[in-house]
Amino acid sequence: MHVSVTFRESMPLRGTNRAGDTTLFDTSPEFYGTGSAPSPLEMVLQSLAACSMMDVISILKKKRRDPVALIVEVDADRAPEHPKVFTAVRMLFRLQSPDCPLADLQRAVSLSIEKYCSVSAMLRQSGCHIEWKAELVREAYQ
Hints:
- This is OsmC family protein.
- By secondary structure, the protein is α+β, with helices and mostly antiparallel strands.
- It has two domains: 1-37; 40-136, GMP Synthetase, Chain A, domain 3.
- Helices cover 32% and strands 33% of the residues.
- The chain is built from three helices and six strands, in the order βββαββααβ.
- The protein has helices at 40-62, 102-116, 118-125; strands at residues 3-8, 10-17, 22-25, 69-78, 86-96, 129-136.
- The longest helix has 23 residues, at 40-62.
- The radius of gyration is 17 Å and the shape is globular.
- The protein starts with a strand and ends in a 6-residue tail after the last strand.
């Protein structure tokens, strides 16, 4: 795996992978940013959600369930001193599906967070506590 990140005179930073896909990174004006893109730490939380979400969708599809929509909300706490690592993360998985029981969703999330998701493994190895909840949503997402 290889990526590069480029700074050209001002924020945002531009990250690029081997395929040429780009991701923008920014920060608040107090740190010379423009606030026009997620910060690197926000991207870590988004990466955690996306990594786990991909696992959950894959697990549910293997169980022949129909995940119509899935939203993962993430909140986190950070250490008060530098490097201000994440100390705790709370995740809420909200699944819309016509045929998935809550037990299947909970099992899929558990497998992802505890076994498959590389991002959650890296956070846990840094001492971050990850807790999660899962719920089924019957109404359509907007």
